[in-house]
Design a protein that fits this description.
This protein is of the alpha+beta class and 429 residues long. Helices cover 16% and strands 31% of the residues.
């Protein structure tokens, strides 16, 4: 191949430089831009954001906290019907028949893809659990009784205007036949439903403002707290006729004497069918026998654990401890029969184990503790660890400590023996 030499004289520098520049530009334009640019490294695929870890591991949430022996374990909460997050456009479509199309009936799938709104708790109050383990919750703001499956948290409800007529529902109770009793302050009655949730009867005579309710299935008695009358009215569970009254009525919440009340609210029974009543304005709990005779009382007004500030809810656990719900303090407290504080849970807030206007407490036969609170519109579920279970845990913990101590002692002895052997081997013979 011949070499070609190009010479440029100084006189022709200007013209030849312009020609060379134009030639260079032309060459550059004949190449794609990306061949001249530096290649960029390939982009890394965008990783999906990991779900945020919960701040609290509720599976390990207990009171008191370790290393103490736990007595209450957090389980779950209920707020209403589970929300279906599937877009309405992806919901199963209903087929319209040719007769509907001929008659001009609106296509059921052409409704702007609307879904029915789920029903949610707004103002849960009194609670009860059926023989099959379903949780019943009276919701005054919704005007209904919610029924929760405590395993799946699915919910149905007995609604106002559809299944019954409610004014202001306050509390619920279930007897051994799963008859449902619902107190209604506005309509001054207790409505009675059968297992199929059909209205079968009512208690109306003598009631002004029925709030709390509980049933003595052994002695066939229904206890209804009438807050405005400052009395607990006892009815026959079969005939629904009034039997007697506990407390003096007509004193406009002014009485403080033993056996009387000032705006009572909650009521509960223990294993011996003794009756416990929260005397709300007097900031105390009063205890009566099954015949309505006064036994004892406890409580004082202040603003901390061990005190009451308009206590409302009450329940008795399988060991006979007294649990109270206080909406002003937002404390769930546990007392013995003498009124000594054993434990407490709560404080203002919406985290698990905190409360916002705590209203009621209920304990079922499985030692599950349910609490209702107003402003989050929720029911929290806990598990009470009984005295016997706590003792077993204490023994297990003590045995573990003993085993660890023995293991440490054995290890120390082995180290001492090894050191002694090394020292003996190193000594001059």
């Amino acid at each position: 191949m011949k070499k070609v030499h190009i010479f440029v004289s100084p006189q022709s520098w200007g013209g030849n430089f312009r020609a060379a520049a134009l030639l260079l530009v032309g060459v550059m334009l004949t190449f794609p831009v990306h061949t001249l640019a530096k290649k960029k490294p390939p982009k890394e695929p965008v990783k999906a954001a990991e779900p945020a870890k919960p701040l609290i591991d509720i599976s390990k949430l207990v009171w008191p906290a370790p290393p103490s022996i736990p007595r209450v374990r957090y389980l779950n909460y209920f707020a209403g019907q589970k929300i279906d997050l599937t877009p309405a456009s992806e919901q199963p479509k209903k087929k319209s028949s040719w007769m509907d199309r001929l008659a001009g009936v609106q296509d059921p799938n052409n409704k702007q893809h609307l879904k029915p709104l789920p029903f949610q708790l707004l103002g849960p109050l009194g609670m009860a659990v059926s023989s099959t383990g379903e949780l019943y919750v009276a919701d005054q703001k919704v005007g209904a009784v919610f029924i929760f499956n405590t395993e799946t948290r699915d919910a149905t409800l007995i609604g106002n205007g559809r299944d019954a007529t409610f004014g202001l529902v306050n509390a619920v109770a279930l007897d051994d036949d799963d008859r449902l009793f619902v107190t209604d302050g506005k309509l001054h009655r207790v409505l009675v439903f059968n297992k199929k949730h059909e209205v079968t009867d009512q208690i109306k005579d003598g009631l002004v403002d029925p709030v709390g309710i509980t049933i003595d299935t052994e002695n066939r008695q229904v206890y209804v707290v009438d807050t405005q009358q400052d009395q607990v009215i006892v009815y026959d569970a079969d005939s629904l006729k009034e039997k007697r009254r506990i407390g003096t009525g007509g004193k406009k919440h002014e009485l403080t004497s033993q056996g009387d009340f000032a705006a009572p609210t909650g009521v509960a029974l223990d294993a011996d069918n003794n009756l416990y009543v929260t005397d709300t304005l007097n900031n105390r709990v009063e205890i009566f026998d099954a015949d309505g005779n006064f036994i004892s009382q406890f409580g004082k007004h202040c603003d901390g654990p061990g005190c009451f500030a308009h206590v409302k809810g009450i329940a008795i656990d399988s060991d006979g401890h007294i649990w109270t719900a206080d909406p002003m303090l937002d404390l769930l407290q546990v007392f013995d029969r003498e009124g000594r504080l054993l434990a407490f849970i709560g404080g203002h807030g919406q985290l698990p184990g905190q409360f916002s206007s705590l209203d009621a407490v209920y304990i079922d036969k499985k030692n599950r503790v349910f609490t209702s609170e107003q402003y989050p519109g929720r029911v929290q579920m806990f598990r009470y660890i009984t005295d016997a279970e706590a003792e077993e845990l204490r023994k297990e913990k003590e045995a573990q400590r003993s085993g660890e101590k023995a293991a440490k002692g054995s290890a120390a002895n082995a180290e001492a023996a090894e050191a002694k052997a090394d020292k003996h081997a190193a000594a001059p013979q």
